[in-house]
Amino acid sequence: MGRPTQWLSLLLLVLLPGPLPVAGMEDAAFPHLGESSQPPPRACPPRCSCPRVDTVDCDGLDLRVFPDNITRAAQHLSLQSVYLHNNQLSNAGLPPDAFRGSEAVATLSLSNNRLSYLPPSLPPSLERLHLQNNLISKVPRGALSRQTQLRELYLQHNQLTDSGLDATTFSKLHSLEYLDLSHNQLTTVPAGLPRTLAILHLGRNRIRQVEAARLHGAPGLRYLLLQHNQLGSSGLPAGALRPLRGLHTLHLYGNGLDRVPLALPRRLRALVLPHNHVATLGARDLAATPGLMELNLAYNRLTSARVHHRAFRRSRALRSLDLAGNQLTRLPMGLPTGLHTLRLQRNQLRTLEPEPLTGLDQLQELSLAHNRLRVGDIGPGTWHELQALQVRHRLVSHTIPRAPPSPCLHCHIPNILVSWS
Hints:
5% of the residues lie in helices and 11% in strands. It has a 16-stranded parallel β-sheet, with helices on one face. The chain is largely without helices or strands. It comes from Colobus angolensis palliatus (Peters' Angolan colobus). This is Podocan like 1.
């Protein structure tokens, strides 16, 4: 599996709704009891399991003190994975030499414990470090200075503040690709981000300002997730993200933005802006991102009068456009002809005319549910060019009897599915 695929897999874990991962499933290779037919080695710590020769699993044992014989076990087991999550471990329960002799450990899980700061003397061989769901408020200076092979660092759901990090916290992590700092109390983007970073998750913090200077060190960043912060109308100034030349996806859900951010990185492919206060889409708002393939402006404050007819003129690569939950009364003009998906449910649409849909012969999904359309409001020829279309959900409002449509709607329209129920 290549690195880009690994990044996408990690991103799906972040964006998919639902509860936190089930305990013990942070790592794809997490062992399950019974995988090995061999009896546990004698060196395995009491109450823990060692289903493989390179793994110690002490998950969910309500431990308050680090099992001191893991160090001795490491000398016999050539440990690569240590799982200590779902316990009651505090920093007082982790002695300074807790991981002495663990020079081969690549995966360490200490999530769902009671740690208040990053433990010192972590194995320098680490590639994945899980510290989510603790009480961590600071990372002591130098705590991550030796972990040059670390690729994934999970610090979400802690109590980190700006004062708990400094410019050196992440600067020595020369292999880091994935950093999750979501669900903390940060008000700014951390400084000293490593050049190798590909995914940065800062959702659900208190970030009010994004400074370009904080991003210069991470030119290879591909996914920046800033949903549910407090950027408002001035927190993301024009050009603030220009250092991120390779940025693929920008996630800004729920930030109180009143317009589409300007001067975004030219190579941006996905711009996710639902649940903001965007009321206008101007003629040049999308001009800086001609390669944009996905634009999500759902649940903003757009009206038809304030969507410029040339707003999408340079968005020829656009394949998915989500304008659901706005206040549109008619379809926008000048839609990109390469669109595959157009979502317009929960607007105020009163008519459907053929002109805005002309040339959209690649459109496969058009969502129109929960508008004010009646059967007679659909102009003649509206469906004529939409040969690949599937119209999803109900077109008629709740006040109209659910009578079947006139057969003429289907006349000479092959491969089109219209759902009325």
